[in-house]
Design goal:
Four Helix Bundle (Hemerythrin (Met), subunit A), mainly alpha, 2 domains, 3% strand
């Protein structure tokens, strides 16, 4: 048993050092890790130890191992999407449904919108991005999958631009989890499933949200976003199904790997 314990401890040490480089930004998002031979020389470990270290980092969502002849590993900085994936797994294990995620968002997203409106620098940090997304929404309103994606980005921006890092991470994980389901649902739905008039109504509300944030009306935008979510959220699963779809989580949140062996 002792050799196996030693390998595991060495693997954790290698994973710790690479993880620290990712967290610090020394390794940027999308950077390739050095090839296995170089990492083995750098850390003075065996191939099995390096493979175990790679498995640890991949399980944490910090790298994707691309397998096969041209394989290697690519860095992924931690993100709300990563947290959303793990959150989805926990909620699924607890038999919690996607409807519970929607209910949570109805509480936290209005608070984020209110913080956006309270930002003293909102004129150049918040408003331009929301206006860009609103205009993109109106331009793509005839294409259901596209407009749903733009709508989700608008709502995600209300979170990501609120200025409170812990809330951005926590609410962003919920947004990522909900978005993966809503966009998957939209791709399987006929355009007539959401009438154009309903999409136009949502676009008008987005415009009003933008106006209130620009004017600094925190309380009013909180109320409007809460009311909008209560009326606009719909179950993105087939009728009768409320379960969290783990397939959607995997496909839409984590980069896919390829078959084979790299490390």
């Amino acid at each position: 048993m002792e050799p196996r314990v030693r390998v595991h401890r060495l693997a954790e040490q290698v994973a710790d050092r690479i993880r620290a480089q990712i967290i610090s930004g020394e390794l940027a998002d999308g950077d390739p890790l050095p090839k296995a031979d170089e990492l083995i020389r750098r850390y003075q470990v065996s191939a099995p130890t390096l493979r175990e270290a790679m498995r640890i980092l991949e399980a944490e969502g910090l790298i994707t191992v691309r397998r096969g002849r041209l394989g290697g590993a690519v860095v992924h900085r931690p993100s709300p999407a990563n947290l959303g994936y793990n959150l989805g797994l926990v909620l699924a294990a607890q038999r919690s449904g996607i409807g519970d995620v929607a209910a949570a968002l109805r509480h936290v997203e209005p608070a984020c919108a209110a913080l956006c409106a309270a930002r003293g620098d909102r004129a150049h940090t918040v408003v331009p991005r929301l206006r860009e997304l609103h205009e993109e929404y109106l331009a793509s309103i005839g294409d259901l999958p596209t407009v749903v994606g733009v709508s989700r980005r608008f709502h995600e921006a209300l979170v990501s631009l609120c200025g409170n890092p812990p809330l951005i991470v926590l609410a962003g994980a919920l947004e990522a989890l909900w978005s993966s389901h809503e966009e998957g649902w939209a791709s399987r739905t006929e355009p007539r499933g959401v009438p154009l008039s309903q999409r136009e109504e949502s676009g008008a509300v987005h415009g009003r949200i933008l106006e209130l944030i620009e004017a600094g009306e925190s309380e009013a935008v909180h109320q409007l976003v809460a009311a909008h979510l209560a009326s606009a959220q719909r179950n993105p699963q087939p009728v009768g199904s409320l379960a969290i779809d783990l397939t959607l989580l995997r496909e839409l949140m984590l980069p896919p790997g390829e078959a084979g062996e790299a490390y």
